[in-house]
Amino acid sequence: MPVLAIIVFWISTVLAVLGGIGVVASPAPVYSAVSLILTLANLAILYLLLNAQFIAAAQVLIYAGAVMVLFLFVITLLGVRDYRLFGDRQPLQRYGAMLLGALLLAGIIYFVSKSGTGLTGVHSSYNAFQAHKGNVQAFGHELFNGFLLPFEITPFLLVVAMIGAVALGKSTQGSRG
Amino acid sequence: MSSVWFILLLPLFGFLVLSVGSPLPKRAVAVLGPGVVGVAFTAAIVMFFWDYGRHGVTRDAVAYTWIVSGHFVVNFGALIDPLATVMCLIVTGVGFLILLYSVGYMSEDVDFRRFFCYMDLFVFAMLVLVLSDSYLFLLVGWAGVGLTSYLLIGFWYERPAAVAAARQALVVNVIGDWGMMVALFILFLHFHTLQYVPIFKHVPAVLGYDGSTVRIVTLLLLVGAVAKSAQLPLHVWLPNAMEGPTPVSALIHAATMVTAGVYLIARSYPLFHSAPFTQSVVIIIGTCGAFFAATCALANNDIKRVLAYSTMSQIAYMFVGVGAASYASGIFHLTTHAYFKACLFMGAGAVMHALHDNVDIRRMGGLKATMPVTFWCFLIATMAISGVPLLSGFFSKDEIVGSVYLQAQHVGWLWIIWIMLALTAGLTALYMFRLLFMVFLGQERDPELALHAHDPPLVMRLPMMILAVLAVIGGYLAFPGAPNWIGNWLRHSFERFSPVAPAEPATQWASVIIVILTVALGIFAAYRIYYQRRPAPEQVGATAPAIYRLFLNRWYVDGLYDRAVVRPIIVLGLFLSTVVERFVINGLVEGSAAALRDSSRDMRRVQSGYVRNYALSILLGAVLVVGYYVFRR
Amino acid sequence: MTPDASSYLIISAILFTLGTVGVLVRRDPLIIFMCIELMLNSVNLTFVAFSHYLSSADGLIFVFMIMTVAAAEVVVGLALIVSIFRTREDIDVDQLDEMHG
User: Is A92 touching C (CB cutoff 8 A)?
Assistant: First the structure.
């Protein structure tokens, strides 16, 4: 791995984690949204480092583009409200969450460190294809050969979600009128 | 080949149609109920002639394989040999006549359809019992006839006595089923199958001669046979079973089901042959039962109960027959007994019909004038059961007594058995003619009761007459001296497996003559006491009060059972229902209910309604899962 | 330090935990929602990392599907938040406690 890539990795990692902290700790939703965009963008860079160009592009387009714009749109629609981070009536919930979160993190890190880094791939057809034709083609090949049916079903999911959103928006209108 | 399935499935078909056919008109039920059994009888006759021409060939017909589990294979199949064919003919033939009779007898009953439904189911279960090719389906049929017997004894479920009798019959039969089941377990343990043929082929090789295992197996089978056939000491249910409708008594508790024990022993003869000890037990139980039942019949005043005791007594003769390894004679007596006892019960039913369901013979008398057909049929059947020469019972009973006589030449103690059997033959004549004289002859004791007495309608008269004719000619199947037709034929069944059944003994004229003499003495005594002097039964008892009371109270066996078994169980039940039920069971139930109520009152607070709390508990779960894997090693 | 599979996994774990804690401590449904997105993305990172190091496209396919589901989920979730806001004029999740026992 080139030195440059290592440097990029560390910068992206730090920025992604800082963005994550920002999402959780910001006083207002709009700061959280901006922090989340930071995280998502840096994850896209990590995807590039992991040789997943298509996913990186989709990450930027779908998440940073569509989803976060929708978030910001709703935030402006509802107005900025300040639900303070520590103005909470349930201290037990807060401390419990932090304690359990720390435990979970510790547990996962324990496992990861214990299992070592011995992950090696078998030399699959995907590998050969990737080396020959490039990464995006290989991904497309897999998607349209092995996973065609799930892929074809995803539009239905999206349509159903869309219909659901429309119905939710409409029903309140109806009840008002 | 297919005719056997035809025979089996027709009564089942009748049962199924009748069980769901509530809109069927009464006439259709009256045709269908007996009709299916009649057609099955025809098929059985066809099967019989098919086989008879081929000298009683034995066939195993496997319909399909039901269970395969390793070496354990359960076939649903039929074993057709002379024994099964004879039983099949009796069940369907006599069954058909009795069902025909029932059309008249039950015509006034509101549950007309239910009656035929149960009866068809009984015929089916009985056919499964006799046609099965394995002990497993024998047990299925065995339990099936037990069930239908229970249902039919308690047919008039509004009568507490009927329900109690049904329950008693079921409980006593379950004792027998237990014995059967344990015997089957042991057989399976040793033979890895329950099919007759493989078991019987290897009895001496696997169990040895007179070994302890074969003794135990046969004794356990005997428990089943004794319970089903109402022999000592599990006989108490049979007299009480007379609470059921009379056709039921005729079919189930006289002609077919109660003889299943005899069939079982005859069918299992290779086992019993290897267990001479059990054979002796069978003979002793049979002899004691014959004598015991005859004495009980002597003192009883209920027309149906007298017949019930005589049934028990006659089946005891059959037990002696099969116990003495004279299987053909046992089955022969079973056949003739089916004719005359069914006829007797039909006669008793006709009398009860005429006398408004009165069963007390002390209030009867002089019915000969008003019910001539019934009288003649009853007379013929009485003579047959008593062993009057040249009627069927004479031949079959003498064959049994004669075979004991023959064997007594070699085994000393059998002389006692033979003497008791001959004595019981005399007693049989005495109590049967006592019944006949008290019911049909002399003066009417209760003129009002007998005011409208008349012969039953044709549908009831005809089966009775047919059976009376059979009771006369049935015996010539084994006319002494002439070729013993039924014996020779049945021998095909009893020579198939290694221990060869003894050839049919020549007629033992000494035995025959002595039995004829005791029978004549019995009839003469009955004539003197009950026809010429016509005393009240109490007066007869007064001459020997102790013995009379002993007989009247059935040797106090019922009371003994009541005290030794029933009362302790009731006391235990009371203890359980009051003390254990209230303090232990209720304490547990109510305690757990209270604990649950209190804990859920506290647990309710967990449901705060805050979604975040619930999410936190999910996280807790995730941490616990991770923690489990961390600390697992 | 050269990154390997476990470094990606640890980043993923950190982001996931952050998201989890955020879901549990915040009261603003929009922020909770964003934290859920954060959790989804951390899982995506895991998939991509495994896919890379195991030389298999299956992980990428998974990520693709997760993205689709996340998009659908955002659409419906935001519509729900908007409609709740319309009826209650307040969207503090702690006010939504009608289900308490």
Answer: no
How many Å apart are CA B79 and CA B132, to the nearest integer? Answer: 6
Domain encompassing residue C76: 27-89
Give chain B positions within 8 Å (CB) of C25: 612
In a domain, C8, yes or no: no
Q: Which of A86, A14, B48 is CA-nearest to residue C15?
A: A14
Look up the domain containing A61 and give its range. 1-82
Please name the residues in contact with B57: beta carbons below 8 A apart, sequence gap of 6 or more. B51, B81, B492
pLDDT digits (tens, 9 = 90+) for B573-631: 888 888 877 788 888 888 888 999 888 888 877 777 777 788 888 899 999 998 888 88
Q: Domain for residue C2, yes or no?
A: no
Q: Residue A90 in 3-state DSSP?
A: coil
In a domain, C68, yes or no: yes
Distance from CA of A17 to the nearest CA of C (A): 6
C18–A20 CB contact, under 8 Å: yes
Q: Is the pTM above the cut of 0.80?
A: no
Interface test with chain C among B606, B610, B620, by most C beta carbons within 10 Å:
B610
Task: State the count of interchain CB pairs (< 8 A) between A and C.
Answer: 236
d(CA B175, CA B186): 17
Q: What is the pLDDT at residue B249?
A: 84
Contacts of C25 in chain A (CB under 8 A): 24, 85, 88, 93-94, 97-98
Could you tell me the two tokens for B283? 């003979």
Q: Is residue A108 part of a domain?
A: no
pLDDT of residue B534: 64
Residue at C10 is within a domain: no
| Number of folded domains that form chain A | 1
- CA B137 vs. chain centroid, Å, equals 17
Please tell me if residue B615 touches chain C, with a CB cutoff of 8 Å: yes
Domain boundary assignment for chain B: 1-180+219-268, 327-552, 559-632
CB contacts of A104 in chain B (<8 Å) are: 619, 622-623, 626
The residue among B495 and B87 whose pLDDT is bigger is B87
**Total structural domains within chain C:** 1
Q: Tokens 């928006």 label which residue? A: A169
CB contact under 8 A, C9 and A112: yes
CB contact under 8 A, C37 and A67: yes
Q: Give the closest residue to A153 by CA, choosing from C68, C48, C59.
A: C68
The predicted pLDDT at position B182 comes to 92
SS3 labels along B531-550: HHHCCCHHHHHHHCHHHHHH
Nearest to B627 among A90, A96, A107 (CB): A107
Determine, yes or no, domain membership for A134: no
Phi, psi of B105 (to 5 degrees): -65, -40
pLDDT band at A176 (very low <50, low <70, confident <90, very high): very low
Minimum-distance CB partner of B610 among C23, C25, C97: C97
Q: What is the CATH number of the domain that holds A4?
A: 1.20.120.1200
Token pair, residue B246, equals 């009379």
Neighbouring chains of B at 3+ CB pairs within 8 Å? A, C
Least confident range of A155-159, B121-125, B300-304, B483-487: B483-487
Q: Do B627 and A108 touch (CB under 8 A)?
A: no
Look at the block and give the residue holding tokens 């549950």.
B111
Please report the pLDDT score of residue A128 as a whole number.
Answer: 63
Ordered DSSP codes for A108-177: HHHHHHHHTT-------HHHHHHHHH-HHHHHHHHHHHTSHHHHHHHHHHHHHHHHHHHHHHHHHHHHH-
Q: What is the DSSP letter of B371?
A: -
Tokens 């769901």 found at: B20
Beta bridge partners of B64: B76
Q: Do C32 and B610 meet the contact criterion of CB atoms below 8 Å apart?
A: no
3-state secondary structure B388-445: CCCCHHHHHHHHHHHHHHHHHCCCCCHHHHHHHHHHHHHHHHHHHHHHHHHHHCCCCC
pLDDT of B489 over the 90 cut: no
